[in-house]
Amino acid sequence: MSQPQANIGVVGMAVMGSNLARNLASREGNTVAIYNRSVDKARAVADAHPEAGFLVAESVQEFADSLARPRTAIIMVKAGGPTDAVINQLVEVFEPGDIIVDGGNALFTDTIRREQAVRDTGIHFVGAGISGGEEGALNGPSIMPGGTAESYATLGPILATIAAVAEGEPCVTHVGTDGAGHFVKMIHNGIEYADMQLIAEAYDLLRNVAGLSAPEIADVFDEWNRGELESYLIEITAEVLRQVDAATGQPLVDVILDQAGSKGTGVWTVQTALGLGVPVSGIAEAVFARALSSKPAQRAASRNLPGGGTVTVDNRDAFIEDVRQALYASKIVAYSQGFDAIIEGAKEYGWDIKKGDIAKIWRGGCIIRAQFLNRITEAYAQDPNLVVLLAAPYFRDAVTQAQDAWRRTIITAVQAGLPTPAFSSSLAYYDGLRAERLPASLVQGQRDFFGAHTYKRTDRDGTFHTLWSGDRSEISAEDTH
Ligand code: NAP
């Protein structure tokens, strides 16, 4: 293989890499080189998909030789050490101007580190968040690349050939430099956690307060999917709820153990947001809800604790509509919090992230794809410097419309003793944001009492301290320095 013939290469031939390579090969104009540490796997992928016309490389050097310049390679291997190992191998055989793309699920700070390490060689390093799982990789994912504008000039058109298409536009955009793409992918996953938890809470209310059966709730979700909640997650929820377990004849949802797992991106989102001081409370509650579910011993030990009373629903249709509105309002909060994290992350790391474009590329190919994202794009188009998404006219109207139902739903859940941490925390966040005054004034007073942490006043400038252990007069804090 001495003639460079491929315009793109993929390293890593497990499910994601092979599907992405097949997707690339199926698009007009792409010739794809593939490489895998265990070469047999790459050969097997090429044999299983002769239509793809893969160029199988037997070594990293052969892989580099098969790529036309600037060489462009997408790494799809296990995140962490394996990604570093492959980057190091490629750096050895690539040249200045070539492009290495990490399409795995990297933590954005690792991507920043890797980009810095590779930069001196003159090779471009791009961290690309790729959403949509195996199916998306094969048929069209949402792609969030971060890297230099120069590398995007080569890479962008190639990625546009394989990305999902939403309303005629490919779901890919140049997110920003270095770790911006993986950062935005992380926030996407965090929002996904919140969205799933909110849907699960809505299900729980319909099942255990309104007394609907699983297939009846599937019908409700199908109905919701025809309105403003239209989304992939609502659609698949209906499918899961309709599924009957072959072994027992029961709804599958009733035989699945109620302990939710996670692969860590929700935790990353919350940890990052904590560091940035962004209250992503809906996402955090979703992560905690999975953690609580996975504590069987604690749950068993708590089973006999007293709970709420029996709540009867007089008007089932009205209750279902209340739950729908509560879900919609809470979902708006979750997205608003997610975009808040993007805004703060962009400030912290110096990225110029176009929020409206991010909402656009999430409309297809990814797990949180939804009709609703168009409203977010519109909100940022009207005001690119929107302080908080929740206060944009469309969303303000939506939560205004929903808020009575939202409050009623949470009151009912509390009375019934049904946990709705994401619904409840979303409403608390909403009430916190819109409050004229918060009890933070008291907290600041307490801080000043025990730690002389000082406070500011509402009526004049300056920083102050009360001499709590003295005569309790107030002094200007500047005087103490
Ligand atoms: P994976 O199971 O995460 O990784 C397997 C691949 O990594 C194989 O090609 C393996 O090569 C290679 N590998 C492992 N250690 C290596 C090393 N030290 N040096 C070189 N190669 C090494 O594969 P995956 O599920 O397809 O995922 C690939 C990436 O996409 C991951 O970062 C994952 O987080 C991300 N991702 C996955 C999904 C999903 O739904 N699965 C969705 C989005 C993103 P060998 O065959 O030689 O062992």
Q: Which secondary structure elements does this structure contain, and how are they paired or packed?
A:
Blueprint: E1 8-11, H1 15-25, E2 32-35, H2 39-48, E3 55-56, H3 60-66, E4 72-75, H4 81-93, E5 99-102, H5 108-119, E6 124-131, H6 133-139, E7 142-146, H7 149-162, E8 165-166, E9 169-170, H8 180-208, H9 214-224, H10 232-242, H11 252-255, H12 265-276, H13 281-293, H14 296-302, H15 316-349, H16 355-361, H17 373-382, H18 393-416, H19 421-434, H20 440-451, E10 464-466, E11 474-476
Parallel strand pairs: 1-2, 1-4, 2-3, 4-5, 5-6
Antiparallel strand pairs: 6-7, 8-9, 10-11
This protein binds NADP nicotinamide-adenine-dinucleotide phosphate.
Mean pLDDT: 96
How much of the sequence lies in strands comes to 5-15%
Low-confidence stretches: none
Q: Count of DSSP helices?
A: 20
Q: Give the helix proportion (percent range).
A: 40-55%
Quick structural gist:
By secondary structure, the protein is an alpha/beta fold. The protein has three domains: 167 residues, 3-Layer(aba) Sandwich (Rossmann fold); 250 residues, N-(1-d-carboxylethyl)-l-norvaline Dehydrogenase, domain 2 (Orthogonal Bundle), CATH 1.10.1040.10; 38 residues, Single alpha-helices involved in coiled-coils or other helix-helix interfaces, CATH 1.20.5.320.
Describe the structure.
- The model has no long low-confidence stretch (mean pLDDT 96).
- The radius of gyration is 26 Å and the shape is globular.
- Helix 5 links the parallel strand 5 (99-102) and strand 6.
- It has helices at 15-25, 39-48, 60-66, 81-93, 108-119, 133-139, 149-162, 180-208, 214-224, 232-242, 252-255, 265-276, 281-293, 296-302, 316-349, 355-361, 373-382, 393-416, 421-434, 440-451, and strands at 8-11, 32-35, 55-56, 72-75, 99-102, 124-131, 142-146, 165-166, 169-170, 464-466, 474-476.
- Helix 9 packs antiparallel against helix 10 (232-242).
- The strands form 3 sheets. The chain has a 7-stranded mixed beta sheet with strand order 3-2-1-4-5-6-7, sandwiched between helices. A two-stranded antiparallel sheet has the order 8-9. It has a two-stranded antiparallel ribbon with strand order 10-11.
- The termini are far apart.
- The longest helix is centred in the C-terminal third of the chain and has 34 residues, at 316-349.
- The protein is of the alpha/beta class and 481 residues long.
- The protein folds into 3 domains: 8-174, 3-Layer(aba) Sandwich (Rossmann fold), CATH 3.40.50; 185-434, N-(1-d-carboxylethyl)-l-norvaline Dehydrogenase, domain 2 (Orthogonal Bundle), CATH 1.10.1040; 439-476, Single alpha-helices involved in coiled-coils or other helix-helix interfaces, CATH 1.20.5.320.
- It has 20 helices and 11 strands.
- Bound molecules: NADP nicotinamide-adenine-dinucleotide phosphate.
